[in-house]
Specification:
The chain has 707 residues and is α+β, with helices and mostly antiparallel strands. It has a domain at 8-179. 34% of the residues lie in helices and 18% in strands. It is built from 21 helices and 29 strands. The strands form eleven sheets. The chain has a seven-stranded antiparallel beta sheet. A three-stranded antiparallel beta sheet has the order 4-10-8, with no helix packed on it. The protein is globular, with a radius of gyration of 28 Å.
Length: 707
């Protein structure tokens, strides 16, 4: 079909001419070599809530040719005008019980329009009314030509589509003018197109999300009761959760859902175009109808009790800074509101996820699906627990995020100084644990997880993965005048360094001034950093032409093997999709390139550069003899990531891989998908292709670092 171009391209566009006045343009192209007919069915329906909440059924009815009127007892009246007065087909938005369960239907059902058009069935209401309707266009389109239809949904009784072309022209011009204030003018036309599509994808991924756990547990009135197991299964202890908000979704097409750490990364590119929405999203997850009374933040819809990396503090600070740069003033009220809620969540982490009170954390799954040997959300075979390099590092990063926010708030409210000292002390304890309790491997110059099993010695799980790079994320280079402007905080800092050398052992020196007198707060001191970077920047290990792999390519030829309780566990490098549904995951962290962790690595390198300056240089790539400072390394990683979507010297986009139709066809080559993750060797898109999600971070990379 596509090889011979025997398909239609259907472009559906919406433009508002007022809050409740929506114009629609549908442009249909016949890409094929022959004239062809297309049945086009712009459809209007009411969501079926009357079947379970007892409200009056709303109605849509035709009042004149080309005009349907929709009425709802609380929402009022709307008019749908269809250009050219096509016939309307009506049915009810009711389940087809005969087809689904062999039951009886009591009237017209939701797939009646389809059955009428495709099979000629008498399955639509001849009285021209229902709760669902479609304008039925039969378009005869010549080969290589197109036709356009206009519709309008509005409160106005005299609705027409006469102004629709002008409305679209105006809205398009306004959009172009707005994006010109966001997208750097020195980007190439290709990069501007990629950045704008990434931002559009972020905006398109908003969706109303309604999930009331209490109602879900007990079931809807008038409907069959849910299985008894639901009362004791997933989310059963989240009965307080009441979601009825517009949310930024990783996926609004296949199965709409939200995830806490995905949303945190969404907020960064969203802040470029709508910082108010970005702030509202972050605040939502810590509101009392989301956050558990014990302080846990819901992870994602199918298991709120799982644990995502605690990145909301980082996201809140980044959104605050992005908005401050764009508007000239930071929203301190937002920062205070989210800071107080994040302190509750931080306390939950400390109390629930440090099994032995050693400042080493067991976060479990932490969003990384199949990264490790075991399913980290389930009990370990033979018992015991994992001390996680990534879980502990995320908490060190969280401590520094909250410390930074506290210092910002202390600029006008000095009482936050004490809170900053508290988070600094948390950081010191966690950083010391990272460096002295076995997670750091001196021989390999890398961080690993530790396996603790009853009655046995602890074991390092020597898998070189992103788990061992996450310690780099816990870094802040704080300006000297910022420290000096808080005498209480500075005094406490110096006292700790002088009096508790046992706690600062192995941690980056927080007293030695670096570039411009800055102080370094980091798990990884500069010489350890150099050793970790030798692996990070090795093209035989983590460094791909398109970013940093989640698992070292050394495990391609040397898989990690572990025997536990008579079973052999294996971790091997897989650059694309996972070869199995291991641990129930539908994504792969054993080799592909993921944007969120790459973005944090770039930011960490920039922060280290603020402290060590231009004189600290490393080979990039390792073994090449090419010496770069850390800012240049960060820029190189950014370039590699952005290049996934940009045309190369041959005019090809790596994201499209070997799909020649996508690479060459003018009707495909400039529409860029922002996949879930990317092939670790060739950069082609992998995972969900219909979402933008956190891969929208490429917009921020292009905005801050160019091409």
């Amino acid at each position: 079909m596509f090889a011979e171009d025997r398909y239609f391209d259907v472009f559906v566009e919406y433009a508002k001419d007022g809050i409740e006045d929506l114009h629609v343009r549908i442009e249909v192209h016949n890409r094929g070599p022959d004239d062809a007919e297309l049945h086009l069915l712009p459809t209007l329906w009411f969501r079926n809530t009357w079947s379970w909440n007892g409200e009056k059924r709303p109605s849509i009815r035709q009042t004149e040719p080309g005009l349907a009127v929709a009425e709802h007892e609380s929402e009022g009246r709307y008019h749908l005008r269809a250009e050219g007065a096509p016939p309307f087909l009506f049915t009810e938005n009711e389940t087809n019980h005969a087809r689904i369960s062999g039951g009886a239907n009591t009237g017209f059902v939701k797939d009646g329009i389809n059955d009428h058009v495709v099979h000629g069935s008498q399955s639509v209401n001849p009285e021209l009314q229902g709760s669902k309707c479609a304008a039925h266009y039969r378009l005869q389109i010549e080969a290589g030509k197109s036709k356009t239809v206009h519709l309008r949904l509005t409160r106005e009784s005299g609705a027409s589509v006469d102004r629709t072309p002008q409305v679209f022209d105006l809205r398009r011009r306004e959009a172009d003018e707005f994006y010109a204030t966001v997208i750097p003018p020195d980007l190439s036309a290709d990069a501007k197109g990629v950045m704008r599509q990434a931002l559009a994808g972020m905006l398109w991924s908003k969706q109303f999300y309604h999930y009331v756990v209490r109602d879900w547990l007990k079931g809807d009135e008038g409907q069959p009761a849910p299985p008894n197991g639901r009362k004791h299964g997933r989310n059963a202890d989240w009965g307080h959760l009441y979601n009825a908000d517009i949310l930024s979704m990783p996926d609004k097409w296949e199965y709409p859902w939200f995830a806490a750490w995905d949303l945190a990364f969404h907020a960064i590119p969203l802040a470029l175009v709508d910082s108010d929405f970005a702030k509202e999203q972050l605040l939502l997850l810590v509101r009392e109808w989301y956050m558990h009374p014990n302080g846990q933040i819901p992870a994602y819809e199918w298991a709120f009790g799982d644990v995502n990396p605690p990145v909301l503090g980082w996201a809140a600070w980044r959104v605050y800074k992005i908005e401050k740069k764009r508007r000239g003033k930071g929203d301190r009220a937002f920062l205070k509101r989210i800071f107080h809620k994040l302190m509750l969540n931080f306390t939950w982490w400390v109390n629930r996820k440090d099994a032995e009170g050693r400042n080493v954390f067991q976060g479990g799954f932490l969003g990384l699906d199949n990264i490790g040997v075991f399913d980290r959300s389930a009990p370990l075979p033979g018992g015991g627990h994992l001390e996680q390099s990534d879980g502990t590092s995320w908490m060190a990063m969280y401590s520094l995020n909250l410390l930074t926010i506290a210092l910002e708030l202390a600029c006008e409210e000095p009482e936050y100084e004490d809170v900053a000292s508290k988070f600094w002390e948390h950081f010191v304890h966690i950083a010391r644990a990272m460096n002295t309790l076995g997670l750091w491997d001196e021989q390999d110059g890398f961080y690993y997880d530790l396996l603790h099993r009853p009655g046995q010695e602890e074991m390092k799980l020597k898998i070189r993965s992103i788990v061992g790079l996450i310690p780099l994320f816990a870094v802040e280079a704080i300006e000297s005048d910022r420290v000096e402007s808080f005498p209480g905080f500075a005094r406490r800092l110096d006292w700790f360094i002088d009096k508790r050398p046992d706690l600062t052992e192995g941690v980056a020196c927080m007293r030695t001034p670096g570039e411009s007198g800055r102080r370094l707060f980091a798990i990884v001191e500069p010489e350890k950093l150099r050793r970790v970077l030798s692996r990070l920047l090795d093209e035989r290990e983590f460094l791909s032409p398109y970013g940093i792999r989640a698992l070292s390519a050394v495990h391609r030829a040397e898989p990690y093997m572990l025997d536990v309780e008579g079973q052999t566990y294996r971790v091997a490098y897989e650059p694309a999709e996972s070869s199995s549904g291991l641990f129930g995951g539908n994504s792969n962290w054993r080799g592909p390139i993921w944007f969120p962790v790459n973005y944090l690595l770039i930011e960490a390198l920039q922060k280290f550069h603020h402290y060590v300056g231009d004189s600290f240089r490393v080979e990039c790539p390792t073994g090449s003899g090419k010496m770069l400072n850390l800012a240049e390394v960060a820029a190189e990683l950014s370039r590699r990531l952005s290049s996934i979507f940009l045309r190369d010297e041959r005019g090809r986009r790596p994201v499209f891989g070997r799909e020649e139709k996508l690479q060459r066809d003018p009707h495909f080559r400039d529409y860029v998908p922002f996949h879930e993750y990317f092939h670790g060797d060739d950069g082609s898109g992998v995972g969900a292709s219909h979402q933008t999600g956190w891969t929208g971070l490429v917009a921020k990379l292009l905005q801050q670092s160019g091409e």
